[in-house]
Amino acid sequence: VFANIVQAPEDPILGVTVAYNKDPSPVKLNLGVGAYRTEEGKPLVLNVVRRAEQLIINDQSRVKEYLPITGMADFNKLSAKLIFGTDSPAIQENRIATVQCLSGTGSLRVGAEFLVKHYHNRTIYIPQPTWGNHPKVFTMAGLSVKSYRYYDPATRGLNFQGLLEDLGSAPSGAIVLLHACAHNPTGVDPTTEQWEHIRQLVRSKGLLPFFDSAYQGFASGSLDTDAQSVRMFVADGGECLAAQSYAKNMGLYGERVGALSIVCRTADVATRVESQLKLVIRPMYSNPPIHGASIVATIFKDRDMYTEWTIELKAMADRIISMRQQLFDALRARGTPGDWSHIVKQIGMFTFTGLNTEQVASMTKEYHIYMTSDGRISMAGLSSRTVPHLADAIHAAVTR
Ligand code: LMR
């Protein structure tokens, strides 16, 4: 019965790792998936995560019972505080329904499924470009996906005018996906003033903001600064959704730990929203896994561990920033044609290089450098040792 099934293509991001793994070259370099690597090119388990895991393992009172459908209550409360701020009136007024989900993707999917069932408008506007999985998540949930202009290839910066025009002409009530910080793949974020402008437009048009927050702490190194955009929207008392991931900022990629929050106008509405979220989650995966959420909650509940986390997080963010400078300097030293200042201006895990598909293909073929075909490179996968190799490859690609 399955004989006619056609071979599906690899995922545009995760498929890069599949290709990389098959390459026997000793100089190969994976700058595809956004996963942090040390200066030695190794995956990093944060020290504070190891400490938390040790405490969890040693605690004989811990059992392996099912979590509630909505996940671990402490984890949810602390996750809301992390993104909305400890003194957020919306938290104090119990106006937020937060549920533990399977990292950022799972949180987006649960949010989208909820909107399809309970929100009157099924169109979501996503930035052009955006993370490749966004349109798939929303389409599979049953939303209709449209895009708004975001990136300007000419300036390698924000197309603010285009963004305002497109959101300005979106139908009232449409959902708008916003990257809370460190826009993926471009590394281009609005300024605080631009965010304020966007907020006014979104609110005046009655659009529903849905934030994807996958990089809190990774853009600037400060958890508060990177949540500023979300907090501006919550401060005006209006509704929004926020999907959080702990993959990058706590290095918990494979633990699949994240949260979806829906900010409502009243506590009563939030209670009813949570009850409906349970009906969305139960038939999908029943309830979320314990381990990752236990790590996060253990770290958040202990002041020393929380501080240690912020220090380790800042160190990761700083290393990425230093990679930007080193790559920029290496291209300048080679006299590589072009203005590469966007490498140091863009923020977060990725640089949107401006290299085209053919140039990327030639870098993979000749230099064994793996990256997504849109020219995005994960700065977190780079090290001082590999910068010269990448700079050589970019130089060759743009001068051939
Ligand atoms: C990425 O964009 O590389 C990450 O968000 C990982 C993923 O799942 O695509």
UniProtKB/TrEMBL annotation:
Start and end residues of each Aminotransferase class I/classII large domain: 28-394
Catalytic reactions of this protein: L-aspartate + 2-oxoglutarate = oxaloacetate + L-glutamate
Ubl conjugation recorded as keyword: no
Keyword vocabulary terms for this entry: Aminotransferase, Pyridoxal phosphate, Transferase
GO molecular function: L-aspartate:2-oxoglutarate aminotransferase activity; pyridoxal phosphate binding
GO cellular component terms given for this protein: mitochondrion
SUPFAM superfamilies the record matches: PLP-dependent transferases
Cofactors that this protein relies on: pyridoxal 5'-phosphate
InterPro entries listed in its UniProt record: Aminotransferase_I/II_large, Asp_trans, NHTrfase_class1_PyrdxlP-BS, PyrdxlP-dep_Trfase, PyrdxlP-dep_Trfase_major, PyrdxlP-dep_Trfase_small
PANTHER family: ASPARTATE AMINOTRANSFERASE, ASPARTATE AMINOTRANSFERASE, MITOCHONDRIAL
Protein's name in the database: Aspartate aminotransferase
Source species: Nelumbo nucifera
Gene: LOC104595171
